[in-house]
Amino acid sequence: MTIKTHRTHPTAPTTLRANPALRALTLAIATTCFACESEPVDDAPPSAELVVTPGETELTNLEVEAVHEYAARAEAVFIGEVTGIDYQLSDPDEDGAQLPFTVITWSVEDGIKGVATGRQYAARFLGGPVPDGKVLTVSEIPVFELGDRDLLFIEGNGERGCPLVGGNQGRVQLLSQGDAGDGVSRVAAGAQWPGRAAASIRDAGLGGGEAQPLDLSEPFVFEGPRVATPDELAAAHARHQARATAIQAAAGETEADRAERAALEANQFNPVIAR
């Protein structure tokens, strides 16, 4: 995973609070966020990886196992459409630093667990614009756009940088034919796949309940997990490489890819190079 700041001209934030500008993205902040996939690092990641098999009209046994595990861990599971994208800054921490967050709101089409059909549900993700015109992006956190339809497995909303079970595996994009995904999220195998996943979750008795909604009016300070060790960074990098999409795998490794890998290895897989 890489964490970057870059200048852009994003759509004007609608809920960006008038807090001081982001002061610094320190090494400690960056390395604590290395594993969106299993945050915090002391938590065990899901034992089953959610890998969606292209072209399958039915869920495979492995998919059923993963879907059930993800649903059991999740606070909220639903199919929904992105209807709002807003931005917030965390309150200053003890060092005075703030971080930008993006708040995604879905209209729930099928509330499977924790949220009712027809309701709105919001989740907060690390990354977004800051007042100086830069934007913080985190490579392993999914990118959402208005109108996106997803099957979501939400865990740690309001507490984690990436409130999805298994990190980006906790989002399954429901794409129309010819549409491209965000490059990190899972993609449903076909139009029938999400409905069958939802039915399987309900049949297993894993639906229902009510998730605590995110209170966007409450001030918050982001407390990331502890700083990752070099071995944990290397393991996270290896998992990321193993999860390359079919398109990425078919493209092969470019000279730029090799240079990036060499730089990561030389820096003990820490994505932030000290100046």
UniProtKB/TrEMBL annotation:
First and last residue of the signal peptide: 1-35
Keyword set, alphabetical order: Signal
Taxonomic path: Bacteria, Pseudomonadati, Myxococcota, Polyangia, Nannocystales
Protein species of origin: Enhygromyxa salina
Top-rank taxon, per record: Bacteria
Protein name per the record: Lipoprotein
The keyword Signal is annotated on this UniProt entry: yes
